[in-house]
Amino acid sequence: MLYTVLPLEEVLEGIEQEPGPTVQLTLGGITVEAEPLGNFQARVVRVLSTDPRHFLEPHCQPGFLIHGQIV
């Protein structure tokens, strides 16, 4: 069961699309998974650390844009 105030169409939006390639990066000693966007940018997808404090760091939260050389 899924309890949400959002319409079902919005919740399932993009579910049929294949996820893009991701890379593992270290930001300030915290390992994250990021989606490269081009132009030396990437978007954080998820935190891979097991330390609960790392999930509270603003620069590691999903959606955060990383600027710089992404390898």
Strand count, sense and barrel status of the largest sheet are: 4 strands, antiparallel
Spatial separation of the terminal alpha carbons: 40 Å
What amount of the residues lies in strands?
Answer: 25-35%
Counted beta strands: 4
Structural shape: globular
Count of individual helical segments? 1
Return the string of H and E elements: HEEEE
Radius of gyration: 14 Å
State the secondary-structure class.
Answer: mainly beta
Classify the helix fraction into a percent range: under 10%
| Mean of all residue-level pLDDT scores | 89
| Cross-sheet strand order for the largest sheet | 1-2-3-4
What topology emerges from the helices and strands here?
Blueprint: H1 8-11, E1 23-27, E2 30-38, E3 41-47, E4 65-67
Antiparallel strand pairs: 1-2, 2-3, 3-4
Description:
- With 71 residues, this protein is mainly beta.
- The protein has a domain at 20-67.
- It is built from 1 helix and 4 strands.
- It has one helix at residues 8-11; strands spanning 23-27, 30-38, 41-47, 65-67.
- The protein has a 4-stranded antiparallel beta sheet, with no helix packed on it.
- Strand 2 (30-38) and strand 3 (41-47) form a beta hairpin.
Nutshell version of this structure?
This protein is mainly β and 71 residues long. It has one helix at residues 8-11; strands at residues 23-27, 30-38, 41-47, 65-67. It has a domain at 20-67.
